[in-house]
Write a structure and sequence with these properties.
The chain is an alpha+beta fold. It contains 9 helices and 10 strands. The protein has helices at residues 2-13, 67-70, 73-81, 102-111, 166-171, 200-215, 221-236, 244-256, 261-274, and strands at residues 18-22, 26-27, 84-87, 94-99, 116-119, 124-129, 135-139, 142-145, 151-152, 162-163. Strands 4, 5, 6, 7, 8 and 10 form a 6-stranded mixed sheet that branches. A hairpin with a 3-residue loop joins strand 1 (18-22) and strand 2 (26-27). The longest helix has 16 residues, at 200-215.
Length: 280
């Protein structure tokens, strides 16, 4: 424990947020109060540090530079069980290009600017000054660890730390994909009365809010899509004002979160059935 704790305190003193790792290079799991993020986590999980919990919860977000936290009784218990020290590169203004094999290292030497290099068990960590979004498998054997990620601390390495180059930033940029939405025609129930929408703006605002709700979903996407479809249909599904253009917008939002056309169609059909709006 003493070595891990000492290393963590030394890193924290120079502004590098640290956290303990268990065997297998994984962070300590959330405590009972924070299990499955029941506590709500840290707002947006964009900055290091725990929620109000004093334990090393929330993975990378637990990383801290506060020596009182690192040396607290709850963290000292974690350090006794820890197998290694990790740090949050993005929180320290760093980016790690994690090279997992000889082929990845050869690519880096031919492609990337020279910088500080830290040997790892299977390859190398190339460190650059500057933070960016993290991304896994940007090419064979290459991961990017910076914001919202952690890396194992393996020492100071060799070389001179250089600025984050555009060629590394570009690795995390994914080419936009073309989403082909599948729309389902909506049929009104006969004799349901006049339209309650007052103006087209009311309907457009409802569709926009539904799109936003889907695109902001962080988990349980399929359930969120179904509930959103259900809400839209319960409000706008009986007067005949919903068009294929409206459903296309909703399907596009769902597919941008990884839902397949089939899943979108199933969720829409199930919502229709639940509300008694089956095609007639």
């Amino acid at each position: 424990m003493r070595d891990h704790l000492s290393t963590a305190l030394e890193l924290a003193a120079v502004g590098v947020p640290t956290l303990p790792l268990r065997a297998g290079k994984v962070p300590f799991g959330n405590c009972r109060a924070c299990a499955r993020n029941a506590c709500g986590g840290r707002p947006n999980m964009k900055t290091p540090g725990p929620c109000t919990c004093p334990q090393p919860c929330h993975g990378w977000a637990a990383a801290t530079t506060d020596p009182d936290v690192i040396n607290s009784p709850t963290w000292r218990r974690a350090w006794r069980e820890a197998a290694a020290v990790a740090y949050h590169p993005g929180g320290a203004g760093l980016t790690v290009v994690d090279l997992d094999n000889a082929e990845a290292i050869a690519w880096a030497r031919a492609t990337l600017p020279a910088t500080l290099i830290v040997p790892t068990t299977r390859g190398e960590h190339w460190l650059y000054q500057g933070a960016m979004q993290s991304a896994n498998a940007v090419r064979p054997g290459v991961d990017i660890k910076s914001a919202m990620a952690y890396a194992r601390w393996l020492g100071l390495g060799n070389g001179t730390l250089t600025g984050l180059p555009d060629v590394v930033r570009a690795l995390a940029v994914k080419e936009p994909t073309t989403v082909r939405p599948v729309a389902v025609a909506v049929h009104a129930l006969a004799g349901d009365g006049e339209c309650p929408h007052r103006t087209p703006t009311y309907l457009d605002r409802g569709i926009a809010m539904a799109e936003q709700h889907i695109t902001e979903a962080r988990e349980a996407v399929h359930a969120t899509v179904y509930r959103t479809f259900l809400a839209v249909l319960s409000t706008h599904g009986r007067c005949g004002c919903l068009t294929e253009a409206h459903t296309a917008r909703l399907f596009t939002a769902a597919q941008s979160k990884g839902e397949s056309p089939r899943h979108c169609t199933d969720a829409w059909t199930n919502a229709l059935t639940t509300l008694g709006l089956q095609h007639v």
